């Protein structure tokens, strides 16, 4: 019989609110993403100065992952938690910033500090560095949240024992429109790992 | 994954029909013949509309792309990248002769897709820059029943796409998966790599002590991944093991211990139930930057693979980003069929601190098993091990 897995915890960042398992941790009335995420970072006592050099997609993904992973009893040296993330806009939020540095010859000044973030999977690298995840990172693009894809892929990684746990979800940002929903899949947990439950959790806030 | 008497039975998965659409030819056979003649697709360009300084790259001209595409469909509605992907995938879909039903998947592997539509005179709406739009365009052109899965995972995308296809087949979601991969040499990409001072205006020299930096390349490469043994081409290979591991170290620099690459290869060997000495050949990443090449040499040494013949194909195609891993796997499968260890273009004197066996001249050798590796920004690494199909053990 195929082994079944569970969802053990989940987080949301949207509408100026950070929540874990449906409970609001932080909320702010700032409509500007940069201001909001900085306030959330401080309130949540994140204590990771590399955060400030990240682009907006990485800040969003990093904080949504951090509020979940810091609840876990993680090993200091290494952990095997795969990151399977997805979104619609890829890294377009930062791509447009790089494009602005090359759009006219008179002000041509591309910057490596911006360019390195013109890949969606960089946010997975940021999370892996902080939490010592020497595990799989995969970033998929869909035009909407696709629970079936994430569920199948997470099951495959867990059943083949390539990963002990899988952190899945959706992290999307374009300027001040943003949404993060992440959930942790593993052997133990209270919530069934099926598409109906994933959709229910996705819509909970 | 099927079960038989309670024991998990892994589905075998194979790479079969394939196409390479590149500066070295518009189908895999032509590309291999041109490589055997010692040709490279790299050329020096002085084109200030792309980069203020000269650069060396492997490009496919718009004229060539349009000429090929016009044989299939009207050209006006599609971007250059879309035309390349469609022309490439079309060859594989035709050769495979598979009806595109619910059990057939489509994966598109790219780092930047149609990023060139952000240019103000691109002639296409900016909405074309969304990768899901690229996915829909390819899906609708061929009439795939399933939504395209777009994978964008930096320079390991092409190798990782093979793993993703394998997983969806073993989960029973699909019987067949078509992968098409591609990226363009755009102003966006050139300006970014140049800001890292990583680009060379001379042909690159992977693993060589006189290395000059990297070259970019554009290509579309496509393959059929299938579980059905009656759908195999003569050069087909079986996927024996695969793994992807992060360095957990730095977003733009490889690990100094080659940690993620080391772990990826080790896990892939484990799944394949093989030891390092059973690998006949490594198709490595070899971007020709000191940090990358050094990191790979360290990882291969930690695994005891320093004697295994290896090459980098960047001296033929440049670094083709999201397509590179798939392109290089396809080239690898053709040289496996021909039993040729193919030389690493641009290499003469070892320029890494650990011993590795870079192939300097073509050599005939019976080849059975090869390892493909890739590493990329974000600290990602991927390794897949392939075996020549048993009916093809020449």
UniProtKB/TrEMBL annotation, chain A:
Q: What is this protein called?
A: 3-oxoacyl-ACP synthase
Lineage of origin: Bacteria, Pseudomonadati, Bacteroidota, Flavobacteriia, Flavobacteriales
From TrEMBL, chain B:
Keywords per UniProt: Transferase
Q: Fetch the Pfam families from UniProt.
A: ketoacyl-synt, Ketoacyl-synt_C
Highest taxon of the source? Bacteria
A single GO BP term for this record reads: fatty acid biosynthetic process
Kindly state one GO CC term assigned in the UniProt record: cytosol
Q: Name one GO molecular function term.
A: 3-oxoacyl-[acyl-carrier-protein] synthase activity
Keyword Transferase listed? The answer is yes
Q: InterPro entries per the record? A: Beta-ketoacyl_synthase, Ketoacyl_synth_C, Ketoacyl_synth_N, PKS_Beta-ketoAc_synthase_dom, Thiolase-like
User: Where does the record place the Ketosynthase family 3 (KS3) domain?
Assistant: 1-388
> Which family is annotated?
Belongs to the thiolase-like superfamily. Beta-ketoacyl-ACP synthases family.
Recorded protein name is 3-oxoacyl-[acyl-carrier-protein] synthase-1
The organism named in the record is Aequorivita viscosa
């Amino acid at each position: 019989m195929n082994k079944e897995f569970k969802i053990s915890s989940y987080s949301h960042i949207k509408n100026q609110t950070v929540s874990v398992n449906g409970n609001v941790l932080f909320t702010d009335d700032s409509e500007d993403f940069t201001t909001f995420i900085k306030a959330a970072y401080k309130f949540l006592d994140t204590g990771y100065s590399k955060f400030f050099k990240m682009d907006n997609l990485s800040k969003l993904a990093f904080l949504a992952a951090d509020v979940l992973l810091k609840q876990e009893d993680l090993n200091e040296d290494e952990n095997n938690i795969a990151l399977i993330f997805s979104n619609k806009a890829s890294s377009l939020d930062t791509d447009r910033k790089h494009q602005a540095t090359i759009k006219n010859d008179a002000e041509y000044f591309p910057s490596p500090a911006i360019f390195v973030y013109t890949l969606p999977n960089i946010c997975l690298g940021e999370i892996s560095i902080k939490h010592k995840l020497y595990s799989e990172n995969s970033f998929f693009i869909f035009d909407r949240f696709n629970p079936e894809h994430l569920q199948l892929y997470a099951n495959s990684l867990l059943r083949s024992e390539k990963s002990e746990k899988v952190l899945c979800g959706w992290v999307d940002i374009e300027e001040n429109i943003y949404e993060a929903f992440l959930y942790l899949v593993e052997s133990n947990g209270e919530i069934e790992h099926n598409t109906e439950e994933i959709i229910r959790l996705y819509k909970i806030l | 994954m099927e079960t038989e008497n309670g024991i998990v039975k892994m589905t075998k998965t194979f790479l079969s029909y394939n196409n390479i659409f590149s500066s070295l030819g518009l189908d895999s056979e032509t590309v291999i013949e041109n490589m055997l003649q010692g040709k490279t697709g790299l050329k020096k360009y002085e084109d200030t509309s792309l980069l203020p300084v000269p650069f060396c790259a492997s490009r496919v001209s718009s004229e060539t792309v349009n000429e090929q595409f016009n044989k299939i469909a009207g050209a006006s509605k599609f971007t250059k990248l879309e035309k390349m992907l469609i022309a490439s995938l079309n060859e594989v879909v035709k050769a495979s002769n598979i009806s595109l039903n619910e059990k057939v998947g489509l994966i598109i592997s790219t780092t930047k897709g149609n990023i060139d539509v952000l240019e103000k005179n691109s002639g296409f709406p900016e909405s074309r820059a969304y990768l899901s739009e690229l996915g829909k365009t390819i899906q609708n052109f061929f009439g795939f029943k399933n939504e395209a899965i777009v994978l964008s995972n930096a320079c390991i995308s092409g190798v990782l796409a093979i793993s993703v296809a394998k997983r969806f087949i073993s989960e029973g979601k699909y019987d067949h998966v078509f992968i098409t991969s591609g990226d363009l040499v755009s102003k966006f990409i050139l300006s970014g790599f140049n800001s890292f001072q990583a680009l060379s205006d001379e042909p690159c020299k992977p693993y060589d002590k006189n290395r000059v930096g990297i070259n970019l390349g554009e290509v579309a490469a496509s393959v059929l991944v299938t579980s059905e043994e009656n759908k195999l081409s003569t050069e087909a290979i079986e996927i024996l093991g695969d793994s992807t591991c992060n360095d957990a170290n730095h977003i733009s620099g490889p690990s100094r211990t080659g940690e993620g690459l080391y772990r990826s290869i080790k896990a892939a060997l484990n799944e394949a139930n093989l030891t390092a000495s059973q690998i006949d050949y490594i198709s490595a990443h070899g971007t020709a930057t000191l940090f990358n090449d050094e990191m790979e040499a360290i990882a291969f040494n930690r695994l005891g693979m320093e004697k295994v013949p290896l090459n980098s194909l960047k001296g033929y195609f440049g670094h083709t980003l999201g397509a590179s891993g798939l392109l290089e796997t396809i080239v690898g499968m053709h040289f496996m069929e021909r039993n040729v260890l193919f030389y690493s273009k641009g290499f003469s004197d070892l320029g890494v601190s650990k011993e590795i066996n870079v192939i300097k001249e073509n050599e005939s050798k019976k080849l059975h098993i090869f390892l493909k590796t890739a590493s990329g920004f974000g600290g990602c690494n991927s390794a897949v091990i392939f075996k020549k199909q048993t009916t093809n053990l020449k």
